[in-house]
Design goal:
alpha/beta, six-stranded parallel beta sheet, globular
Length: 269
């Protein structure tokens, strides 16, 4: 019996937080130019630093733009459009992002999620087209992952909320790995639980041992809610974008194994 691994991308294979935070600042300046007119480089650097801390709440890339603006509003009362920002800390964002996000989107009249997704993608495309080297340099693969992918004996699929072209470019340029497009389920492929159902039902996958590696506990909990997905072995990374509290909770859930980076790399090989 062989193995099939469905792998999240950001926070499992690639640490893209530096790039996504810088891209989000660039995109926020395009979306809300008036708000950023008085922002100096020190405040901008502070926002990027804080983005590394709040990164665990991000499910889809466009949320980075919202977080950049929210962090700015916590520091500049004069531009504040939502009372949520008053006295808000990064810990408050980590605890309550699910409740905060719809409130600020309404307060800011940002009801077009697709427009934010498109803008975030365009800013990244422009950066890639104008300076591929620095865009690549703002990302890194976790130690040992590139070799593990190159020499994997298991069947590998990427299941991510990232836009597929960016995942493909990073796999190719940094990891030196070509994963066929039909094995990359990216933004627009539907919820991850549906992708896992699709993968397990493919005739060529019958008899394979199924593994899903993710850095978001909420995503793994969604899988557990689906009886149809009981065959999947579930893993939460202890190196990705999650918090100590989430890892502790995962340890108490029998279906989930909290996995270390070295163990993960060895499993793929």
């Amino acid at each position: 019996m062989g193995d099939l691994y469905a792998l999240d991308f950001d926070g499992v294979l690639c640490d893209s937080c530096g790039e996504s935070s810088l891209s989000a600042v660039k995109a926020a300046k395009v979306r809300w130019p008036g708000l950023f007119a008085g922002v100096d480089s020190a405040l901008e650097e502070w926002i990027v630093d804080q983005m590394h801390i709040v990164r665990p709440v991000v499910e889809t890339g466009y949320e980075n733009l919202l977080l950049v603006r929210l962090l700015l509003e916590t520091q500049m009362p004069s531009i504040r459009k939502s009372s949520v920002a008053e006295g808000l800390t990064v810990d408050g964002i980590l605890e309550s992002w699910g409740k905060i996000k719809p409130v600020i989107m309404e307060a800011w009249d940002e009801d077009d999620k697709d427009a934010l997704i498109d803008l975030f993608g365009k800013v990244r495309d422009d950066w890639i087209n104008n300076d591929l080297t620095t865009w690549i340099g703002a990302n890194r693969f976790y130690p040992g992952v590139s070799d593990a992918l190159k020499f994997a004996s298991s069947k590998i699929y990427i299941v991510t909320t990232k836009q597929g072209r960016f995942a493909e470019a990073l796999l190719r340029e940094i990891a030196g790995v070509i994963i066929p497009p039909e094995r990359i389920y990216a933004l627009g492929s539907g919820p991850k639980v549906e992708v896992l159902k699709l993968l397990q039902n493919k005739p060529e996958h019958q008899g394979l041992k199924l593994h899903f590696v993710e850095d978001r506990l909420a995503t793994l909990k969604n899988v557990i809610k689906e009886p149809e997905l009981d065959k999947w072995n579930l893993y939460l990374t202890n190196w990705g974008y999650n918090t100590e509290k989430e890892r502790a909770e995962a340890e108490s859930i029998p279906r989930i194994q909290v996995i270390e980076l070295s163990t993960f790399s060895n499993k793929l090989k």
